[in-house]
Design goal:
Layout: E1 4-20, E2 23-37, E3 40-46, H1 56-65, H2 67-71, H3 76-82, H4 87-104, H5 108-111, E4 120-121, E5 124-126, H6 131-140, E6 146-150, H7 156-166, E7 171-175, H8 185-194, E8 199-201, E9 221-223, E10 242-245, H9 247-250, H10 253-265, E11 269-272, H11 279-288, E12 294-295, E13 313-314, E14 317-318
Helix pairs in contact: 1-4, 6-7
C-alpha cells in the first residue's frame, strides 16, 4: 500500500520573547510532516533554522520533494542518502519512526531497546538580557536544578555572576551561541570555573575554534553549531569535551542515534538539545536522551501554549511520550 506524505506549517507563540546572541523571536515556526499508510499515520516536527540557511519555504520544499520516495516505501536508512542532514529530513525521519510504531503496534522505545523509559531532568533556558534582567529570570527559576543561560557578547562576566548569585543552588550551563572571541575566551572560562559552572556551550564560531585545543579548558566545553552528524566528528577531538545533539541538525532520530554512539566512542559527553518547538519535536529526543549526560528539552516550557496532547512536564522533569503524541 502506498504511503502518502503531507506537510503543514504551524506557529506557536512564545511566552514573552526568546533571545540569544543572534537575535530574538516571539513565536516558534514549525513544520509538521505526516506520513500515512492506510488508516495509520506518523508525524514528525521540525524547526527550520536560519543559522544553517534554512527557511520555512526551503524546508517545506525539501520535505515535499521526498514524497515520491516515501510513497515508494523508502526506509529510514535509505532516507539518509536521499535527503541532506537538517530540519526537513528530521521531520520525515521522525514521521517514519512514528508510523512504523503505529503499524507494528510496538512503541519506538521498545524498538530502541528501552524497556522502561525514565523521566528526565531538563535544563530550563534563560534568555539573553541585561545582568539585572537575567538575575530576575534566574531568581524566578532558582528552584530548578539545571539552568541554561544564554550569553554571548559584551558584559557576559557580569551576566554570569548575576545569574549564579541569583540561583546559587542550580547547576549552570552557559550557552554563548558562538558569541565569544579568542580575546575573551580564556577570561570567560576562568570566571565560569570560579563560579562552578557545569558546562560551556559553543563559545566560539564554528570553524574558528582552534584555540580551544591550545588553552586550558577549566570547564567542560560542548560543541553545538560545530557538530551536526557523525561525519567529521573526529575533527572535534581535543577541542571539545561534549557534543550537543539536536534532531534538527542531525536530520532525524536515525542519524542522531549514530551521532550519539560515535560520540561515545570518541569519549565525548552527550548533551541532547532542541530548537524552540512543541512536544511533538521533543518526543523522539526524550528517547534519544535516556542515557545523556545533559538534557535540554525545554522547548514546550518556553511556549505560551503547547500542542495537545503534549509531553508532561512536572517542574524540570519531563515524561516519556505517550503513543497519542508520538512513537
Amino acid at each position: 500500500m502506498d504511503r502518502v506524505l503531507s506537510v503543514v506549517e504551524e506557529r506557536f507563540p512564545i511566552a514573552g520573547s526568546f533571545t540569544i546572541s543572534r537575535g530574538s523571536k516571539t513565536e516558534a515556526e514549525v513544520i509538521v510532516c505526516t506520513v500515512s499508510q492506510g488508516l495509520k499515520s506518523g508525524r514528525g516536527e521540525c524547526v527550520p533554522y536560519r543559522r544553517y540557511g534554512e527557511t520555512m519555504q526551503s524546508v517545506r520544499a525539501a520535505i515535499e520533494a521526498a514524497s515520491a520516495a516515501v510513497a515508494a516505501g523508502i526506509g529510514r536508512d535509505a532516507l539518509l542518502a536521499v535527503m541532506q542532514p537538517g530540519a526537513a529530513r528530521n521531520a520525515v525521519d521522525c514521521a517514519l519512526w512514528d508510523l512504523e510504531a503505529k503499524l507494528a503496534g510496538v512503541g519506538a522505545a521498545e524498538r530502541l531497546g528501552i524497556a522502561e523509559p525514565r523521566l528526565l531532568e531538563t535544563a530550563f533556558t534563560l534568555s539573553l538580557a541585561s545582568p539585572e534582567a537575567m538575575a530576575a529570570q534566574a531568581r524566578a527559576n532558582a528552584s530548578r536544578p539545571l539552568l541554561k543561560v544564554k550569553i554571548g557578547g559584551e558584559g557576559d562576566i557580569e551576566r554570569i555572576r548575576a545569574v549564579c548569585e541569583a540561583a546559587p543552588d542550580s547547576r549552570i550551563i552557559l550557552d554563548a551561541n558562538e558569541g565569544w572571541t579568542d580575546d575573551n575566551v580564556r577570561e570567560n572560562l576562568a570566571v565560569a570555573a570560579e563560579l562552578g559552572v557545569a558546562l560551556v556551550e559553543q563559545p566560539l564560531p564554528a570553524g574558528r575554534e582552534a584555540i580551544l585545543g591550545r588553552i586550558v579548558r577549566p570547564v567542560p566545553v560542548c560543541a553545538d553549531e560545530s557538530v551536526h552528524t557523525a561525519d567529521g566528528l573526529e575533527q572535534l577531538v581535543g577541542l571539545y569535551d561534549a557534543i550537543n545533539i539536536k534532531l534538527d541538525k542531525a536530520g532525524g532520530l536515525t542519524a542522531a542515534l549514530a551521532l550519539r554512539d560515535r560520540g561515545r566512542e570518541f569519549g565525548f559527553s552527550i548533551m541532547v538539545g532542541c530548537m524552540v518547538g512543541t512536544s511533538l519535536a521533543m518526543a523522539p529526543a526524550v528517547l534519544l536522551a535516556q542515557d545523556a549526560d545533559f538534557v535540554d528539552l525545554d522547548g514546550p516550557l518556553l511556549l505560551a501554549r503547547d500542542r495537545q496532547p503534549g509531553l508532561i512536564y512536572r517542574g524540570s522533569l519531563v515524561s516519556p511520550p505517550e503513543p497519542e503524541l508520538w512513537g
